[in-house]
Design brief:
3-stranded antiparallel beta sheet, globular, 14% helix, 96 residues, 5-stranded mixed beta sheet, mainly beta, single chain
Length: 96
């Protein structure tokens, strides 16, 4: 399954990755856009014994709070992303 993540070069660009090469780690968040993607990803993470990764159910908007080191992956490119950073956490508003 393809997932997208925001590049860390200061530009508003996204990288497309295969979920097996994404290297999900504890604290990461995956935002899904369909019920099928949600169930498929939660099943894959369970089967591959990857814990600590949050898979969000499909919704129009998301309000997220994550650690600075955590990454957010998308199954479809978001319409808009608003980010507010502090020293310990990052708050994101995502519209799909």
């Amino acid at each position: 399954m393809r997932v997208y993540m925001r590049k860390h070069d200061g530009e508003d660009k996204y990288a497309e990755l295969d979920h097996t090469k994404a290297g999900f780690m504890s604290g990461d968040i995956i935002i899904t856009t369909t019920e099928q993607e949600y169930h498929e990803l939660t099943g894959m993470l369970l089967f591959e014994n990857i814990s600590g990764v949050t898979v969000k159910e499909p919704a129009e908007t998301y309000s997220l709070e994550k650690a600075v080191s955590a990454l957010v992956f998308f199954t479809k490119l978001p319409h808009s992303v608003s980010i507010k950073r502090s020293s310990e956490t990052v708050r994101m508003m995502v519209t799909m």
